[in-house]
Amino acid sequence: MNEQVTTVAANERRLTIARAMAEAIAQEMRTDPSVFVMGEDIAKLGGVFGNTRGLLEEFGNERVRDTPISETAFMGAAVGAASDGMRPVVELMFVDFFGVCFDAIYNSAAKNAYFSGGNVKVPMVLMTSTGGGYCDAGQHSQCLYATFAHLPGMKVITPSNAYDAKGLMTSAIRDNNPVIYMFHKGLQGMGWLGTEPGATVHVPEEAYEIPFGKAAIVREGSDVSIVAVGMGVHHSLKAAAKLAEEGVSAEVIDLRTLVPLDRDTVFNSVAKTGRLIVVDEDYKSYGVTGEIIATIAERDVSILKASPQRVAYPDIPIPFTRPMEQFALPNPDKIISAYHNLKRARTWRWL
Amino acid sequence: MEKNSLQEENLTPTKEQKFWMYRNMLVSRFLEESIEQIYLEGKKPVFNMAAGPIPGEMHLSNGQEPCAVGVCAHLQPFDVVTATHRPHHIAVAKGVNLNKMVAEIFGKSTGLSGGRGGHMHIFDADVNFACSGIIGQGMGPAVGAALSRKMQGKEGVGVAFIGEGAVNQGAFHEAMNLAAVWKLPFITIIEDNQWGISVAKSESTAVPDNSVRAQAYGIPGYQVRDNDTYEIFRVAGEAIERARKGGGPSLIEIETYRLAGHFMGDAEGYRPPGELDGLKAKDPINVMRARLGSEEGLTDEQNDRIVAEARATVDAAVNFARESAYPSPEEALEKVFV
């Protein structure tokens, strides 16, 4: 028994999301010469959030390219290179910067396959940092998941841990469509960003894919379904642990990818528990939380025992000062409150 | 309509190249004239953009043919071109499949994308042609194609056609700088037709000659005056050859003429009186015809035959489009992902 435990520990490779992303990119670059990386400060610096560290040293500056601060140009160039047989992995340092290059993303990358009747493929990965919680104010802390997920033609993925981060990156690079890879800064494993330890997990050394559109049930339960992405998954797990102390059995679902969205897993879970809480660090209105609730309402509202609850970012720009930002962010306590609200809410009877 | 393979001396067109350019100008013009007629079907007496066999916006390229043929005479199918919302002349010169292109303009199932794109979204992967409806949008992708060729060590240049209005877009500046700093095989062709819809170049642009902007990127810049097909051929030949040899990007601004409105239905009240007549008197197709007469001895009889062939090519494409079926509506749900 003890011997077994030791063996497992010896084989364990606990990586941060940053390292897992870099490892996936490096492995794909070794086997596929069409894969290259470009963006701001991704070469010598290894990426502001560490996810391209080591790539310049291994692959050189032809395939690992620092760009000028010209997101419009290099995002457009990624579209052009991807349409010409390359597989660019391009970094938008903060998702908040999308405003200076969105045309290339949603009007070109996302639509060229459609406009060409499938004759032009745009296999590019746009990796971008999301999320706040460290007082970086309203132009460096947003999530904007729904902004990308709303527009057709892009796959949108949101890993919550290093295992998923690697597998989803491998799948993203091999995918023939534009993939928006949204990593949360607070999960990245950069010490200076107040990292969530739960994101640093065992990551196999060999390359592997995680299929898009497959949510993970990260904790099983029977009383309530908590659906989340990215940082919200960790909040939800903490809330579920506390709820267990109250005798409540919470199921936690990590969506992992927003496009495609695994509606079946969500539906089946809610069919089992009858109660739904959706957690999202993106703005509340017109977003992921509404989409998940609509999924249930549209398919069969009678599976709900109570009105669903959502824990999301209020519809305000992200404030700088710590007390205001922390007030606005989702956290485990808000999820627990949401559960209590849900229990207080009128219970429906379907006859 | 085969054109000559690349020559070492690209500065003066050969006889074959002259005729290649002339034929393509004719096909392009006849295509626009046919579209102009068909576009109005169902749109009279009340103009309704959504009606008729060719609905939607329509930007015709009458008069701008020299830009297309003078540049594309030096290009091969493997070279990459991005064009504008006014794309037909460039598509013709780049060798886009005419039947499929016209079918696309009609929104038919046999179109290049089966009707999903239409006239502003013509993609022909076989000849590496794409265009878009957003000003300056093709700059980045053409630079990216040039980057791709350089990285792969594969033959081919990236050429972005834009209008003079697009040089005031951030995309222009960013892409020019990126192409220059990475020394990519990239050429920008500015079709300066003097008008950004109704706003004159002089009212929108701080410098009268955009070729001076090349200095900002440390690359060669050219200006071609008066829609001169041969001069376009000459400078494009020089720029494309330099790009092929690893000499980096160039910028060419061509003073061209828009003999039609910005889009069909444009009353063109903003044009000074007499401007259009003056431009029509310098119709580049007539100029080319006259040059071929004096330089290559083109007779009326030969010309009639060339004209008839070009017309037949267009008519065949239009018939193909007319006779093709519409896609089934639910096909709209396909090809979002590939």
Q: What would a concise description of this structure say?
A:
Chain A has 351 residues and is of the alpha/beta class.
Report on this structure:
- Chain A is of the alpha/beta class and 351 residues long.
- Chain A has helices at 2-11, 17-31, 55-63, 71-83, 102-109, 112-115, 145-150, 162-174, 231-245, 263-273, 288-300, 322-328, 332-344, and strands at 14-15, 35-39, 64-66, 87-94, 125-130, 155-157, 179-184, 201-202, 216-219, 224-228, 250-254, 257-259, 276-283, 309-313.
- In chain A, strands 3-2-4-5-7-6-12 form a seven-stranded mixed sheet, with helices on both faces. A five-stranded mixed sheet of chain A has the order 9-11-10-13-14, sandwiched between helices.
- Chain A is globular.
- Chain B is α/β, with parallel strands linked by helices and 338 residues long.
- Chain B has a single domain (15-193, 205-325), classed as 3-Layer(aba) Sandwich (Rossmann fold).
- Helices cover 41% and strands 10% of the residues of chain B.
- Chain B has a six-stranded parallel sheet, sandwiched between helices. A two-stranded antiparallel ribbon of chain B has the order 5-6.
- In chain B, strand 3, helix 6 (170-181) and strand 4 (186-192) form a beta-alpha-beta unit.
- Chain B starts with 14 loop residues before the first helix and ends in a 15-residue tail after the last helix.
- The relative contact order of chain B is 0.16.
- The A-B interface holds A 34, 36, 62-63, 65, 67-68, 70-86, 88, 100, 103-104, 107-108, 111-121, 152-153, 155, 176-177 and B 80, 82, 111-114, 116-117, 121, 123-125, 128, 130, 132, 134, 137, 139-149, 151-152, 158, 170-171, 174-175, 177-178, 181-182, 334-338.
